Amino acid sequence: MISRQIDETAIARAKALIDQADRIVAICHTGPDGDAIGSCLAATHVFSALGKDIRTVIPDPCLANLRSLPGAKEMVDASKYPDFAAQLLRDADLILCLDFNTPGRTGRLEEQLKASKARKILIDHHLGPEIDADVVISHPDMAATCYLLFRFFCRLELFNFIDRNAAECLLAGMMTDTGNFAYNCADPELFIVTAELIAKGADKEKLYNQLFNTFSANCLRLNSYALLKKMEVFADAGAALITLTRDELNRFHYVKGDTEGLVNRPLAIPGIVYSCFMRQEADCIRISMRSKGDFPVNLICSEHYGGGGHLNAAGGEFYGTLDDAAALFRSILEDNKKKYIAK
Ligand code: MN
């Protein structure tokens, strides 16, 4: 048995809204990851089994490795079918807002979400929800929205409606947000839920290969090239930097997602506490930073690269040349060390 975490009143209100709804739409954030797609698709499987007319609408395409999740082919991509997506949101009785905390995170769906007369249930694990929803189920302590959603289904007495497909989608989200159970895993009940999902037929090995171990030859070569030729290690400053120009990306036929996770790699080096990856895009330099412990990359990104994020994962943009963006990074190493490392 898992503990009861979701507030009883929220469950009762959500149940009433679901009972009343015929047409339901599940939506998620832009650049949807495994937890976003997994939670929307799991909700679609479970509520379809309950006899509801439910569709998943995503603001823009997801990475290719998520497109083989059960039900993914029926998702409506609003960037490809804007009119159909708008109609679904307009006609919905109920919108499930999954894995995001503010309407702005839904990109092109934001205005339609705000304008829709549908009732709304938010189920999410990001800090500080700012959504005008009828029911807000926000648990930042939970590792994944899919994990929270499993608890939600159980509390609605829908455990038996979680079939193999739904189980696979839920497990995909939990694996994504924990790096295949590498971090955010201190909660023992996460593994009880994992066991339940596997018992329902979710194939963890297959999911691992799909989600974590499928790369094109170009992608492998690009990442190897980046580490071999483009990684600068500033051992004294506890930092590392990787930059990739447009030409370099083109040489390896870069497609979106190919450099996913690259920024984390230098953190494996003992003594490196923060890492920065810069990618030249058409109109700007995209900055991504990761750190270990209490080194605040969110502050570095907001102070120098017009961005922000979390303590250990942040991003930003630089308008100028890649060389200038990299020079700026090198110029603040000493300062960062004094402020955040040498104590
Ligand atoms: Mn998530």
Low-confidence stretches: none
Largest sheet: 6 strands, parallel
Strand content: 15-25%
Structural class label: alpha/beta
Count every helix, treating DSSP H or I runs of 4 or more residues as helices.
Answer: 13
Termini separation comes to 45 Å
Q: How much is the radius of gyration in Å? A: 21 Å
Averaging pLDDT over every residue, what do you get?
96
**How would you describe the shape?**
globular
Strand order of the largest sheet: 3-2-1-4-5-6
In percent, how helical is the residue content?
A: 25-40%
Instruction: Write down how many β-strands occur, each being a DSSP E stretch of 2 or more residues.
Output: 12
Unique ligands:
manganese (II) ion
Order of helices and strands: HEHEEHEHEEHHHHHEEHEEHEEHH
